[in-house]
Amino acid sequence: MTDSSALPTPLNLEGSSSRASISPFGAQVLEWTVDSDTPVIWMSPLAAHDGVRTPRGGVPICLPWFGAHLSDPEAPKHGFARTAMWTQISPDPADKDIARGESDSTYAEFALAHSPSQNSSQSDQPVQPGADGYFPFSFEANLSIDVADSLMMRLTVTNTDTRPFTFQEAFHTYVAVGDIKDVTIEGLDGAFYDDKSLARDHSRKQIGEVTFVRYTDRIYHSDANVQIRDPRFRRIVSIEKSGSANTIVWNPWSDTVGQFDDLESRAWQEFVCVESGNVADEAIELEPDQSHTMTVSIYVDSME
Ligand SMILES: O=P(O)(O)OC[C@H]1O[C@H](O)[C@H](O)[C@@H](O)[C@@H]1O
Questions:
Q1: Which residue from 48, 168, 198, 255 could staple onto 66, CB 3.0 to 4.6 Å apart?
Q2: Ligand 1 shell residues, CB under 6 Å
Q3: Which residues form a coiled coil (predicted)?
Q4: pLDDT for the residue 131
Q5: Can you give the pLDDT at residue 17?
Q6: Which of the residues in the chain have pLDDT under 50?
């Protein structure tokens, strides 16, 4: 187990009307709070900050696959990027001052380079266990974050291998809500989705807004922006995105919350995961030297 005291301190960014905190471990946004002290991004009080597990909350990055690995049940769920140490590019860790972007925004950049071992990079070799073997292709990932009155996250993945590969990705965003039973999500009307809460995957069509009455785990095939309406907190959280063909919606509800030892028994009422990504059949194929960028901006407005 990694000694948590050896973990680099999270980077704090102060925008014009919001503040964020980002950890190099997984390049994970741990906090984003606008104006008031009610966080927009939720973090579990039981989250592990031990440099081993992904802290339960914030914005973990799922990469280079989402959910279970396609062929290896031993591989870590949601890929290895969320438990890898990323390199802080900007602001320069040697500089004491936080780098300031245009206007009042504050900017940070992290990078992750993945190179498989000699053996596993040979296409005629069997895939070996371990991160190299789970994904035997070289790639570079770059995350940039801009904090102003919105939280902007941009993830670029570049194929640095000599062969094409296919990958999946998601910003696994935990949105804090007043009470999940009152929350609705707009923007997905008419979209088809795979219902992962059922024993066998079922394809369904969303009619109207998304509401919550039970355990929910859905992959929407939709590149549309979404709005999370939260009457209890009297706010609308908008997620605007590009380069993302899916929105994943997850809430464990009381039925499954007990499966997570880093969630309090009532925690399911306080968050909804609204994740932007490219997963399942919408996985991205990259030729050598080719890049793909997914951008997500999150805004908060008061409800009338
Ligand atoms: O516990 P984790 O590995 O972080 O996954 C938490 C959740 O992530 C996504 O939303 C998936 O769609 C869910 O099936 C999964 O339960």
A1: 168
A2: 67, 77-78, 196, 217, 248, 250, 273, 275
A3: none
A4: 63
A5: 87
A6: 1-3, 99-103, 118-122, 126
How many angstroms is it from 67 CA to the middle of ligand 1?
7
DSSP assignments along the chain, one per residue: ---GGGSPPPEEEE-SSEEEEEETBTTEEEEEEESSSSBSB-B-TT---SSSSPPSBSBPEE-S--SS-SS-TTSPTT-SGGGSBPEEEES-TT-SSPPB-STT-EEEEEEEEE---TTTTSTTSPPPSSHHHHS-S-EEEEEEEEESSSEEEEEEEEE-SSS-EEE-EEE--EEE-S-GGG-EEES-TT-EEEETTSSS-EEEE--SSB--SS-EEEEEE----EEEEETTTTEEEEEEEES--EEEEEE-HHHHGGG-TTS-TTGGGTEEEEEEEE-GGGPEEE-TT-EEEEEEEEEEEE--
C-alpha closest to that of 230 among 298, 276, 183, 188: 183
Give the number of the atom of ligand 1 that is nearest the alpha carbon of residue 249.
10
Ligand 1 atom nearest 273 alpha carbon: 10
- The interface predicted TM-score (ipTM) is 0.98
Q: Ligand 1 atom 1: the closest Cα is on which residue?
A: 260
Whose Cα sits closest to atom 3 in ligand 1?
77
C-alpha–C-alpha distance, residues 141 and 122, integer Å: 22
d(CA 118, ligand 1 centre) in Å:
32
Residue 244 gets the label, from left (phi > 0), alpha (psi -120 to 50) or beta, of beta
Check residue 37 and give its pLDDT: 73
Mutate which of 42, 52, 273, 279 for ligand 1? The one with the most ligand atoms within 8 Å of its CB, which is: 273
Predicted confidence at residue 144, as pLDDT, reads 98
